[in-house]
Amino acid sequence: MTQPDPLILSAFTMSTVSHGNAGLWRHPDDRTAGYTELAYWQDLARRLDAGGFDLLFIADAVGQLDVYGGSAREALARAVQTPVTDPLLAVSAMAAVTEHLGFGVTVSTTYEYPYLLARKLSTLDHLTGGRIGWNIVTSLLDSAARNILARDRQIAHDERYAIAQEFLEVAYKLWEGSWEDGAVLRDREGGIFTDPDKVHAIGHSGRYFSVPGAHLVEPSPQRTPLLLQAGTSPAGREFAARNAELVFVADPRPEVLRRNVDDIRSRAAGHGRRPEHVKFITSVTVVVDDTDRAAEAKARDLRRFRDTRGGLVLLSALSGVDWSEHDLDRPIEEFRHRRQPLGAGLRRRPGRPEAAHAARLRGRAQRVRRRGARRRRGHGRGRAGGVRGQDRCRRLQLRLPGDAGQLRRPGRASDPRAGEAGPGARAGRRGAAHRPRRAVRHGPRPARRPSGHRLPPSCAAPAPGPRSNAPRSRGPPRPPARRSTPRPCGSTCAAAPTRPSSITTRSARPRCRGSTRTSTRSRSSMAGTVQHTFKHRS
């Protein structure tokens, strides 16, 4: 019977005070505040090497976390991945005090150049004796793009992976093809150190990079460092299948992890690689002590210092959603997107002012609202009626910058722009004289449905019959009849909630008096400065 590969232990950290354990820097025994000192990293490396760890995986980010609240204030105040130093520079010092520990360092292909990064990693491969690894990322923070690339937004997701693939092609040519084996002679008597005939220019000219010359560094122990990757999107899985030797996957659902692992290995086989050569690691947070009771007590003590808002700062940066605008007790199911946001196809044209683009989005939202209002009054058809239009308007608010997402009507007291004057007060908006007139209402006002709700079947108006060719009556629309029959929920509510929209406001939502509400809250366990990651070679 074939013995399974042993588990490989990897410690996961970052060159900052707080990586994924927001708030633990306040613990009396925490030492991460010394991340700027070389002794801190050397002591950490010694402990891991003596404990049998195989790898120190160091994450990195080159931008501030400024999505939460629209600025980096909370990230700075709570030390959420800010400030952060360059992890490459401490690797050689850690290698000097260890014998077996490997180092996987994160570097982005979006902001580096292959010619220079190949030189840095070859140098570290020499200094560590072949113990360097490269965690390949493409970056996602808009703040990094603004400061490095002078772009308002990050490069599109799939294009970043296209850049990364060409980046790797250039690096492969430099590491594997530029210097032949035996090119370095070190012939003291003949006075020849390197055989010029065995060093070749790579002559690369591609869409993103042009590198005509040869590699600057002689072949290192590995030539190509260990390649790590952590993306599980379709483009990320394809990239991992073509290049990665160690893939980081994280999901609390084992069946999802299995699907991702099987998919990457299947793709690797399609590229001519042996699937079993692609290894996978996932994260497990471990709290250790002499006894179970002592370990549980330590875990409770650590949880006292967790910072929920700091966790939301990190979640906002990773998801691109400003979670400061939402209530902590709101059920997470309400944020599920049922369809693509209404404004997803409206991209800001180059040179168009941000205010004009916001006005364009507002105009579309107002048109959708008017159509929804007409459907609620009986004008027009649609299986979802006006509720669907309201839901689409709420989803659109995510794409509106700043106050543009409030969709307030001009002139209301709650509108901060009411009473403003000047050319910028109504940028991109039509004047009051040019706004379309609202439909004239005849007869009594029909009962309004609560926002985000639909009437249950027993409360809803009967479905309209087949259309007739007879002339339409000009009389007022007939309001829906009020029913006194019990509701399906067994209560006396006016409306029963349906599946909530993906984007809603903070206002209280009407619900059945006899129903209950379950609030889903995320749970996080934080175990100190080092998160122990186990790698299974299956």
TrEMBL record:
Biased composition (Basic residues): 359-382, 427-452
Compositionally biased spans, kind Low complexity: 460-473, 515-525
Pfam families to which the protein is assigned, alphabetical: Bac_luciferase (PF00296)
Region (Disordered): 339-538
Keyword entries, A-Z: Flavoprotein, FMN, Monooxygenase, Oxidoreductase
EC number of the protein: 1.14.-.-
Broadest EC class assigned to this enzyme: oxidoreductase
GO MF annotation list: monooxygenase activity
All copies of domain Luciferase-like, residue ranges: 25-335
Organism domain of life: Bacteria
Nucleus listed as a keyword: no
Family: Belongs to the NtaA/SnaA/DszA monooxygenase family.
NCBIfam families per record: FMN_nitrolo (TIGR03860)
Protein name: NtaA/DmoA family FMN-dependent monooxygenase
Classification of source organism: Bacteria, Bacillati, Actinomycetota, Actinomycetes, Streptosporangiales
